[in-house]
Design a protein that fits this description.
Elements (H helix, E strand, L loop, with lengths): L1 E3 L8 E3 L15 H15 L3 E6 L5 E8 L2 E5 L17
Parallel strand pairs: 2-3
Antiparallel strand pairs: 1-2, 3-4, 4-5
Length: about 90
């Protein structure tokens, strides 16, 4: 869910992300969602850089810069998983 932010806030848009089917009632702050929401709001607002605020109980603010086919997110983050991807070839 997303909407334009109200006046008196640093955010340009607000959002919430629900995923009960995956065992997550509500994600506190979703970077991957902001990779799609940033371009959506950037186009509507007419600025390359926008600020999103996720309105979950913990909440968070995400800076989004849209440049061509790239989206850069800024803000505070917590690492929840760390690993390596390994490409396998053959059977």
């Amino acid at each position: 869910m997303t909407a334009a932010a109200g006046s008196g806030t640093v955010a340009d848009f607000v959002s919430r992300f629900f995923a009960p089917g995956t065992g997550i009632d509500e994600d506190p702050v979703t970077g991957s969602a902001h990779c799609a929401l940033g371009p959506f709001w950037s186009e509507r607002i007419g600025r390359r850089t926008v600020v999103g605020q996720q309105l979950s109980a913990r909440g968070g603010t995400v800076g989004v810069e849209v440049r061509d086919d790239r989206v850069t997110l800024t803000g505070r983050a917590v690492t929840v998983i760390d690993g390596d991807l390994v490409a396998r070839t053959g059977g």
